[in-house]
Design a protein that fits this description.
Chain lengths: 410, 454
């Protein structure tokens, strides 16, 4: 899908900054855009990158939902900015389902890891992630023994977390499964143990190299491969609204990021800085992204609206499969637009400051839309000329802006 | 003022965030075997309080992590699901037939649903979880229904015994994928969901041809036609008139100005979705709130609500031909009697309620409900429940004759203790497709299984 639409520009500075903000923050609003518009694009990127993250640990609890609800509330804070945005990215790339994660203790541990390494180093993150108690359960590394190793983790490590599909052989999958066998999660003591008797100790041939491979060496080897930098770099680029890079650009990005030792912050900075002039609306907001962007405008109390994430098909720790959530136009299908359309209409206006002053212009501003298609403008014109009192007009202006195709996009 | 100062954290950093009274992310049951002790307690607690049935609205099955579904990996976000050739319509097809698939997610224990009460082996193998002979609602000398299926027993249903696959995997994900694609031996290269292959040839440009009332389902994957997946059918009420109807009408009119241009642009994708919705809303008309005292809702819970919406949309002129609904919670490794009994009540009230609604609305003569699960469970129990098995019993109800087909011999299970397959599941799927009016061979080109009824 490409963005072929021609847009009417409403404000050139705010257009750029608003795009940057919506790509960088989950919950952001007009004030952020206004404030950042006072300086240059470059300075705005720096400011967003240097926002102070809240690195507090998830609650220790026996209730899985308490951990997930805690996270949902944390993600709302716009001051978390890129930090929260990237923590969510890592959960969607390195995903785990709550029902197959060895319980709340390990989900809390994993979440802590994803959040502290959100803008850290990918190699360090992955080294810890592959021996994480929740992931070991999810991808069947827990209990895998060398005599009959489970291949799930080794396959997904290469297919989804490092090289990408087709960049390794079935022999590599089997060899890595052997080399990574031996991990066991002890749920009594909440410890991840390595059981040597279940491990493979003799040398193995993995990707053409004979060595005494183990989990750490496998991950290091994969992270040393430039294709890992290209594969993960391309995903980050797309996630941050830079579009889907072609093979050659993705290879170039990989070469560069490999040289940066897989440090995440420079990659994010590059993805935002180098795309200042890219098209406005590159991909659909996912359900969760829609939730926070909508919420920042209508002022939901997040804790009263958690269920909406399920209705929007993106509850954290409930991915539809190991590859995480869809990345395509399924986020805009009829069922999704039923939910989003309802949310655009059923707004509690008492929660919105000064709602009576909202007109077409203000509605677009509040939604951060500074590039508008002719079709959306036409829909807004219909509201402006409709036979309604001024209160209803104010409300309907916001309905149209919130439900506009532009607002569905990142 | 710096960017950070724009936001004052309303909570002191030391304080715990305010959590909702009841954790919302737990408002549905899990149909997966919880490894976590605390999680299990949570589920049982919720069940005891009745929260899963009546509280918080809808009850859905868990979306399994579909571990082996490679077409779902989206390495390239522009890739779509694999598709298969569009099937063809039979020349003698009966017009307007509707197939309603109810998926029992988690692996339904078919031997507790259709009970082989005449078999001594069944009682020997299941000292704790067998359904006592005196409770069974008998169908003949050897089999009968679970006691909580009284409404369906009275109404009459078709039983297919020993429906299973021709491969050996007992993984949720493998088996689910095989069922979804109609791949009976795990080797056939179908790339799309079997219901998607039914939907495509039936599409005549109606607002919805395929309706998933229990959320997105891989059964619909790669459908080219208009399908709608509702995670929460309650949202449909938004399309109806309410106290803000004047403003809503203007809003809907504004959405209609977008037009129906079809292109690759995201903008047009959104427009098309809105038009489908508005057409659907118009055709569905004003919808009364579900009647909470109707057993379909009060006993049927989430599944009842799903089928209630399905009945309304089938009755309206929206063009629905294939419905997918889902009831989760069938992975009964433990506490089988309590959980499974409750699920049977939900199934009974929902399906019987749906059939009654079909009679009242006048489409009973063209609707078929097929109750599937991705696998059955082992013949022998593990003291508190049963483990993943192979072939199982399934039930059908609606505009077909009520018969018993296939067989289950619990004394003659395979070497792993599984019921042997007497009816390959693609035979059932192919039969359902043919019943809908589709040339079976056109969507199951690699299958030559028997057609069970017409």
């Amino acid at each position: 899908m490409v963005d072929t639409e021609v847009y009417i520009e409403r404000d050139s500075t705010r257009r750029k900054i608003s795009k940057l903000v919506r790509r960088s923050c989950l919950g952001s609003n007009q004030q952020v855009v206004n404030e950042l518009s006072k300086s240059s694009y470059k300075n705005a990127v720096t400011s967003l990158l240097n926002s102070e993250p809240d690195l507090s640990d998830p609650p220790e609890t026996e209730e899985m939902s308490e951990i997930i609800d805690w996270w949902i509330i944390k993600m709302e804070k716009p001051s978390g900015g890129l930090h929260e945005k990237m923590a969510w990215f890592w959960h969607s790339l390195l995903t785990t389902h709550r029902n197959d994660a060895n319980g709340p203790y390990f989900v809390g541990k994993q979440l802590g890891l994803l959040r502290t390494q959100a803008l850290g180093n990918y190699r360090d993150l992955l080294q810890e992630f592959v021996v994480d108690g929740a992931l070991l359960a999810y991808l069947d590394g827990d209990g895998s023994q060398a005599s009959n190793p489970n291949e799930n983790l080794s396959r997904e490590l290469m297919e989804l977390f490092t090289l990408g599909v087709g960049q390794y052989s079935e022999d590599d999958v089997r060899a890595a499964a052997r080399a990574m066998a031996g991990w066991q999660v002890d749920r009594e003591t909440n410890k991840v143990n390595f059981n040597k008797r279940r491990a493979f100790i003799a040398p193995l041939l993995f990707r053409g190299v004979q060595d005494s491979w183990d989990t750490k060496k496998i991950v290091d080897h994969l992270c040393d491969d430039k294709r890992t930098a290209a594969y993960v770099g391309r995903q980050v680029w797309f996630y941050l609204g830079g579009g889907w890079l072609n093979d050659s650009d993705s290879e170039k990005l990989g070469d560069w990021w490999h040289g940066e030792n897989l440090e995440i912050k420079p990659l994010v900075e590059k993805a935002l800085r180098d795309t200042e002039g890219s098209p406005d609306y590159q991909r659909p907001k996912t359900g969760l992204e829609y939730f926070y962007s909508h919420s920042a405008i209508v002022n939901y109390k997040i804790s009263d609206n958690l269920y909406r994430l399920r209705d929007l098909n993106q509850m954290p720790y409930e991915p539809p499969n190991v590859a995480g959530w869809p990345k395509d136009d399924r986020w805009l299908d009829t069922g999704s637009m039923l939910v989003r359309g309802q949310m655009a209409f059923n707004v509690d206006f008492e929660q919105i400051d000064d709602w009576q002053s909202i007109d077409a212009n203000e509605a677009f501003n509040r939604c951060g839309l500074y590039a508008i298609s002719n079709k959306t403008q036409k829909a807004m014109n219909l509201v402006e000329t409709a036979d309604m009192d001024s209160d209803d007009k104010a409300k309907a202006s916001l309905h149209v802006a919130l439900s506009s195709p532009e607002f569905q996009m990142l | 003022m710096s960017y950070h100062d724009l936001y004052e954290n309303p909570e002191n950093s030391g304080k715990k965030p305010t959590l909702p009274h009841k954790p919302v992310s737990d408002s549905k049951p899990s149909s997966d075997a919880p490894k976590s002790k605390s999680r299990r307690h949570l589920i049982q607690g919720a069940m005891a309080s009745g929260a899963l049935i009546a509280g918080g609205g809808l009850v859905y099955g868990t979306k399994f992590t579909n571990k082996n579904s490679k077409e779902d990996t989206f390495e390239n976000p522009n890739l779509e699901y694999g598709s298969d050739p569009i099937g063809s319509i039979r020349s003698d097809a009966t017009d307007g037939r509707v197939l309603v698939v109810v998926e029992l997610a988690g692996g339904n224990d078919g031997l507790s649903m259709v009970v082989p009460y005449g078999s001594g082996t069944y009682y020997d193998q299941r000292p704790n979880v067998a359904i006592p002979q005196e409770e069974v609602l008998t169908l003949n000398d050897t089999i009968g229904l679970h006691p909580n299926l009284a409404r369906l027993h009275q109404r009459g249903i078709t039983i297919l015994q020993g429906v299973g696959s021709k491969q050996n995997s007992l993984s949720h994900f493998d088996c689910e994928g095989f069922w979804q694609r109609g791949d009976v031996d795990g080797e056939t290269a179908y790339r799309s969901g079997f219901l998607a292959r039914c939907i495509d040839p039936l599409d005549k440009g109606a607002p919805i041809t395929g309706l998933a009332v229990g959320g997105h389902t891989p059964y619909f994957n790669s459908s080219r036609s208009t399908t709608i997946a509702m995670s929460n059918p309650g949202y449909l009420n938004y399309l109806s008139a309410d106290e803000n109807w004047e403003r809503k009408k203007v809003f809907h009119e504004a959405l209609r100005t977008y037009g129906s241009e079809v292109s690759d642009s995201h903008i047009d994708v959104v427009h098309k979705s809105y038009l489908n919705l508005l057409d659907m809303g118009e055709l569905a008309g004003e919808r009364p709130a579900p009647d909470d005292t109707n057993p379909m809702i009060s006993d049927g819970g989430g599944l009842g609500r799903q089928l209630n919406v399905a009945a309304e949309l089938i009755d309206s002129d929206t063009g629905v031909r294939v419905v997918h609904a889902r009831l989760g919670g069938f992975d009964t490794h433990t506490n089988q009697r309590g959980r499974h009994d409750q699920l049977m009540t939900q199934l009974d009230a929902s399906v019987a309620g749906f059939l009654q609604a079909a009679e009242e609305k006048g489409f009973a003569d063209r609707v078929l409900v097929a109750v599937f699960s991705e696998f059955g469970r082992r013949v022998s129990e593990n003291e508190r429940g049963t483990d993943h098995g192979q072939a199982s019993n399934i039930i059908l109800a609606g505009a077909i004759d009520n018969v018993v087909m296939g067989e289950v011999n619990v004394a003659d299970s395979d070497d792993r203790g599984n019921i042997k397959t007497s009816i390959p599941f693609d035979s059932v799927q192919r039969t359902c497709a043919e019943w809908l009016g589709i040339e079976g061979d056109s969507i199951f080109p690699d299958s030559d299984t028997e057609i069970l009824f017409t």
